Amino acid sequence: MKAVVCNEFGPVENLEYKDMPVPTLKKGQVLVKVEAAGINFPDGLLIQGLYQMKPPTPFVPGAEFSGVISELGQGVSHLNIGQRVIGLSMLNGFAEQVVVDATNVFPIPEQISFEEAAGLVTAHATAHYGLKQRANVKAGETVLVTGAAGGTGLAAVQIAKAMGAKVIAVCSTEEKLQVAKDNGADVLINYKDVDLKSQLKELTGGKGVDVVYECVGGETFGACARNMAWNGRLLVVGFACGVIPKFAVNLALVKGFSVIGVFWGAFTQHQPKDFIANMHELLTWYVKGYVKVVVDEVFPLVNAADAINKVLSRNVKGKVILKP
After folding, report:
1. Residue 273 resides in a domain
2. Is residue 282 part of a domain?
3. What H or E segment, with its residue span, contains residue 67?
4. 235 touches 225 (CB < 8 A)
C-alpha cells in the first residue's frame, strides 16, 4: 500500500510517499481501507517535532480518517466487513489502509460523504469536548471563538450555536468572517482592523465574555484574558500564531475566571465512555443538520505536503482532506 512517511522530524516537504507493508491485525482491531483522511494543525507540528507527542521515527502521520472495513480482528463482533466508518488512530491515517482499535471506529450513515466524515472526528470532537465537558456552556451564554474559520474554530461556532449560545467570531479577514457568519456566528470581529481588547469591552458593555474558545495564542489570548466575565472560562485550545502566551495569573484572581486546558487526545484515553457518548451525539447532530463539515479543499494523498502546508499557513476555511 502507499503511505506518507515521516522519516525524521523536519520540514513538511521532507515527507516521503512510498510503498509500505499492509499493517497486521491484532485482537480487538479492524483493518480499514481509507477513503479520506482529515488534516489538523497538530499534524504539521508533529512532523516538525514541535508537538507535545514525539513518536519514534519513521512513522505515518494522520489521526482521523474515513473508509470501509476490510478485515476484522479476533473478538470484534459489533462491526462488519464492508461497513462505512470514521476512525481515530492518533497516527497512521495518511495511508491507503490503516489498522485501528475497534473501540475507536464508528459507523457512519450513508448521507455523510467520506470527505466530510474524515473531517468530523478531531476538529468537531475537540470543540464538542471543550464546550461541553470543559466549559459546560449554558444556553444564553456568550461564546467567543478565535480562529473561527479554521477547522476546530468553525466547529466551535456550530456547536456553541447548537448549545444555545451567542457566538462572537474573531478572524483575520472579511472572507473568513463571512464563513463564520454562514455557520451561525452572531457577531463578527476582524482583529486586523480593530483593537480586539477595546472592541470586546465595548461589545460586552464591560461585562466580559462567558466562554472563550482560544485557538490562536499570542496577543489574541491576552486580549481575551482581559475581557472575561465573572465565572468565565478561558479555554486553551492551541497556538496557531506560533506564540505560546504568558499569562498574568492576577487577572484570573481579580476577574474570577478559570483558565482551562482542552487536550482532546488525552480526553479520549482518560474518559473513553464520555468520548464514545460525545461521538454518538455529534453524529446525531450532523444528521439533524446542527453541525456540518466545511471542506475547503481535497488533495490527493501523494500531495500531502502541500495540503499540510496549507493548513499550517492558516489559509484554510474549514477542513483540508487527503484522498488516497
Report:
1. no
2. no
3. strand 64-72
4. no
For residue 304, the tally of other CB atoms under 10 A from its CB is 25
Alpha-carbon distance of 247 to 250, in angstroms, equals 9
Q: What is the pLDDT of residues 174-197, one digit of tens each?
A: 999 999 999 999 999 999 899 999
**Residue 52, all three cell numbers:** 507535545
Amino acid at 60: V
Q: Taking the model in full, what pTM does it have?
A: 0.89
Shared-domain flag, residues 153 and 254: yes
Quote the domain boundaries for residue 16. Answer: 2-120+293-323
Please answer whether residues 176 and 317 qualify as being in contact, where contact means their C-beta atoms are separated by less than 8 angstroms.
Answer: yes
Same domain, yes or no: 241 and 311: no
Q: Could you give the CA distance from residue 185 to residue 179 in angstroms, rounded to a whole number?
A: 9
Residues 129 and 220 both lie in one domain: yes
* Residue 33 Cα to chain centre, angstroms: 22
Counting Cβ atoms within 10 Å, is residue 48 exposed (0-12), middle (13-18) or buried (19+)? middle
